[in-house]
């Protein structure tokens, strides 16, 4: 399933919809302004909170947590850096790790588990300049979680660029 994200409103406090490939609202990303730390909520089309994303304030390495149903099913951290690609590691609660690599700021990257592609994030398929797609490749994959991972790594990469 492919999802469409309008990228130009990635500021704290701004809300934006993520549409499915049929043009229907699938998820709402709700930026929470006036909080001490960077917080986003991903809601379903009916407004129910599915996932909360929070930036860890006092962490040795930059990290964001993905919270769901009162628990923390995943933590996203920067893995390593090269000149052309960014790498992030998503550690799931049960110890499984997902790899995120590519050109994050260009919106050209992949989410993989043990070399198997779970989602591909790209601007290439779209003609709108400030839009990118999230293609959840596996049918049994958790689309909300993979979208949360994409939002996290983009947010972290943009924050790192601002801090430089």
Key terms for this structure?
49% strand; globular; Porin; mainly beta; 164 residues; 13% helix; single chain; twelve-stranded antiparallel barrel; 1 helix
Identify the CATH class: Mainly Beta
Helix content: 10-25%
Q: Please, how many helices? A: 1
Q: How many structural domains? A: 1
SSE topology:
Layout: E1 2-6, E2 15-20, E3 25-31, E4 39-44, E5 49-55, E6 63-68, E7 71-81, E8 86-92, E9 97-103, E10 108-113, E11 116-122, E12 131-136, H1 143-163
Antiparallel strand pairs: 1-2, 1-12, 2-3, 3-4, 4-5, 5-6, 6-7, 7-8, 8-9, 9-10, 10-11, 11-12
Characterization of this structure:
The protein has 164 residues and is mainly beta. The protein has one domain (2-163): LURP1-related (Porin). Helices cover 13% and strands 49% of the residues. The chain has one helix at 143-163, and strands spanning 2-6, 15-20, 25-31, 39-44, 49-55, 63-68, 71-81, 86-92, 97-103, 108-113, 116-122, 131-136. Strand 5 (49-55) and strand 6 (63-68) form a beta hairpin. The model has no long low-confidence stretch (mean pLDDT 85).
């Amino acid at each position: 399933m492919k999802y469409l994200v309008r990228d130009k409103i990635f500021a704290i406090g701004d809300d934006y919809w993520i549409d499915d490939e049929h043009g229907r609202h699938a998820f709402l990303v709700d930026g929470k302004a006036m909080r001490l730390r960077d917080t986003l909520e991903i809601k379903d089309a009916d407004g129910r909170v599915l996932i909360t994303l929070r930036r860890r304030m006092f962490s040795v390495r930059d990290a964001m947590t993905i919270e769901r149903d009162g628990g923390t099913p995943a933590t996203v951290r920067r893995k390593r850096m090269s000149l052309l690609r960014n790498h992030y590691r998503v550690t799931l609660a049960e110890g499984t790790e997902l790899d995120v690599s590519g050109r994050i700021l260009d919106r050209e990257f992949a989410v993989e588990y043990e070399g198997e592609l779970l989602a591909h994030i790209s601007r290439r398929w779209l003609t709108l300049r400030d839009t990118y797609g999230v293609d959840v490749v596996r049918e049994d994959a958790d689309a909300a979680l993979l979208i949360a991972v994409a939002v996290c790594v983009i947010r972290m990469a943009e924050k790192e660029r601002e801090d430089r």
